[in-house]
Amino acid sequence: MSSSSLAYLENMARNYAIQAVLKDKEGNFGEAIKYYKGAIRVLTKIIQLYPNNALNTLYKEWIDQYKKRVKDLENLRTSLIPAYGGTQEKDSDIDDMILRDKPKVTFNDIADLRNAKKAITESIIYPTRRPDLFPLGWPRGILLFGPPGCGKTLLAAAVANEIKGAFIHADAASIMSKWLGDAEKKVARLFKKARELSSSGKPVIIFIDEVDSLLGTFSNEVGGEVRVRNQFLQEMDGLMDKSEKHFIFVIAATNKPWKLDNAFIRRFTKRIYVPLPNKRARIELLKLFMKKIKVSPNVDIEKLADMLEGYTGSDIRDIVMAAHLRTVSELFTKNGGKGEARPVTLEDFMFVLRDRKPSVSKDLVKVFDSWYSKFKAL
Question: Of 83, 117, 141, at which residue does a domain stop?
Fold first, then answer.
């Protein structure tokens, strides 16, 4: 698996999950099961290959959700009884979205992104610590948008470590259903559960990953998507009631903010652009990824950071990994894997960069910049 990067595997798992939801909604249970199992298989492989990955806690939660849906669909195919028929099972669906073990990633593990961290701190951390300082209320909705692989999911995961509260993870795969009226009811139950958890005074974060897949607008959408979107907007309006002093926050992440309609965007009073890393961020990323490997003194990090302009944080992680794998491969070729691998050199990075191009095009970056100039709200 040395040729498969973590970013590649993550994208594969995401594509499997999206296809699973689409087939699920169409009633094509056989195909849905196949794609859910594909997502489970790839996420399991990520956890095995990258045991120190900061997002593995999230991926384990996703695996559990997908396994449960596979079981429901397999029962449905044999019994023809709706998978979400019982109240107790419906409640367990929402409980499955609550992360029992917080992700290990913290703000200190995320390079740069100072503006995003500052906005999240002011919107979530300060109000939960001193609500008396916010007589006019505080933002309830935060939208994180930008190119894939730049840290949106990491930011949301890090918030769970910055507060002492509940972290609920939702996405299209966990919300959407073939059954008429079930998806919007699940949205209502999700927010009801959040209110129950917050009644003790502890903050609750609802994180919606790839929100455009769940709440975006599409030319060929059917009534179910519209009802789910309307239900979500209604629930958001309830959170924004200034007379309510509960600590419920919604963080949504998307790579395609232009698919969100204006009614949705208005509910998110904090809209944070998570861009490609600048030079300072690239230097921080390189130092972060190089901490656990041996690096030759001939590697000029500033020079390397200049060469990596236009690459995402995920790209940079994969490049460091690929350069290190060259030394490991060399050790096995020459010594059968005995001894220690040599330090990574600048030549290793140069070799990798010959065939590694940025995963995000300049044209796409321009689209994000344009959308940000229109809808910015830090």
Answer: 83
Residue ranges in the chain modelled with pLDDT below 50 = 1-4, 79-89, 180
Burial label, 169 (beta-carbon count in 10 A; 0-12, 13-18, 19+): buried
Residue 66 CB partners (closer than 8 Å, separation 6+): 17, 20, 36, 37, 39, 40, 43, 173
User: Could you give the CA distance from residue 347 to residue 344 in angstroms, rounded to a whole number?
Assistant: 8
161, 303: one domain: no
Residue pointed to by tokens 């209502």: 188
Same domain membership, residue 369 and residue 342: no
In terms of domains, do 26 and 72 share one?
yes
Determine the pLDDT at residue 254.
Answer: 92
- Check which CATH number belongs to the domain holding 117 and give it: 3.40.50.300
- In DSSP notation, 232-275 reads HHHHHHHHT-TT----EEEEEEES-GGGS-HHHHHH-SEEEE--
- For residues 203 and 286, membership in a common domain is answered with no
**Beta-strand pair 166-170/270-273:** unpaired
Residue with tokens 């490997």: 293
In three-state secondary structure terms, 53 is coil
pLDDT at 26: 67
Number of structural domains in the chain: 3
SS3 label, residue 21 = helix
Residue 365's domain comprises 98-275+361-378
Runs of H (alpha helix) within 240-361: 262-267, 279-290, 301-307, 313-335, 346-353
- Helix ranges (H only) for 27-145 are 29-49, 56-79, 87-95, 114-120, 126-129
Helix, strand counts (H, E) of the chain: 17, 5
Q: Tell me whether residue 89 is in a domain.
A: no
pLDDT by residue (tens digit) across 45-57?
Answer: 888 888 888 788 8
- Give residue-wise pLDDT tens across range 11-30: 888 888 888 887 777 667 77
Same domain, 138 and 232: yes
Predicted TM-score of the model (pTM): 0.74
